[in-house]
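Catalogue entry: protein

Sequence with per-residue tokens
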Amino acid sequence: MSHSRSVSRALPLIALLLTSGCAPAASPSVVTVSSLDGLQTAIDNASAGETIILAPGVYHETRAIRIAGRHDLTITGATKDYADTVIRGPGMNDPSLQSNIRLNNADGITLENLTLRDSYYHGVQVNNDSDRFTADNVRTLDNGESGFKVTSPTNASGPAAYSDKGTIENCWIGFTTTGQRGVVEGVDIVAGNGWHLLGNHFVNIRRADGGPAYAAFAKGNAHNPVFADNEVENSFIGLSFGGGGTDGVYFRNGDTRYETQGGVMRHNVIHDTDDAGIYLNKAHDFLIEGNTVLRNGPGTGAIESRFTQSTGTIRDNRVSGPIKMRDGGTAVTRNNQTVPADTHAPDPNGDADE
């Protein structure tokens, strides 16, 4: 009896909602496409909240997928295996395709379960106030400069100018052998605030000519980056706050004092680098804790704090090389442990990597 009474009381309320225009909103739509032209059309026509599924296959790309002025979309491969859905350009040395995917003024875009590969510059380029970007379970392979590039406008100011609060997680980012451009990075975040790199795997982040390259870095007065639970192997420099240099016109709000402010690197595993494992270049108020750095380059530091602007705390790390203060860089150091160079690199998720 109590059940029938509650139903009878609910019926007038439902009728009132329907007649007053307050009916529950329809569920966001899901669209499946099976071509890159279909994907671009679905993006161009999408409403906020939609999910666009790209069917399994290898899609040969001749022009970038563009997401402009669209918000709160998910673009995903059809399965949980990023190898099943591949967007493939003409190659790292063919400038006809500069990026696989480009965002412009597009907030809340999520990319999942995809491989993006073989472009001249970037797998994904995030531009022009594209906040809350997420990549989850994406592989970027053989993109000539970087897997992910977050750009900064010229001589800009205010939060609306920058792409903030992004997350790149559970991604595989790297090269079969090396990158090809004069600048090479796995992830390059310029002037962004609140970017998180979590649980990614970086492989072979090197330049073909042997010059400096960075598995991942934030720079240009980037604020509050968090790099946690990542693994870097066989790269030039591992993880970096600063480094690489930033032209003054690209610094956040024109403040050129620091390359980063307030960054955290925690529980990363970095091994077999040509140079430093962790590099702090004009990095203000950093926290470097609980990382494992093995087999950094000869004569370099497992962790390096460089230039007087670099200040912070380095604690509870396991390193096979020295912790260095260079050119006036400082840090409070405590509870760091030196381990043999042949120590096995642990998996950031807790398993030994034999």
Summary: The longest helix spans residues 2-19. Residues 41 and 111 are 17 Å apart (CA to CA). Helices lie at 2-19, 36-44.
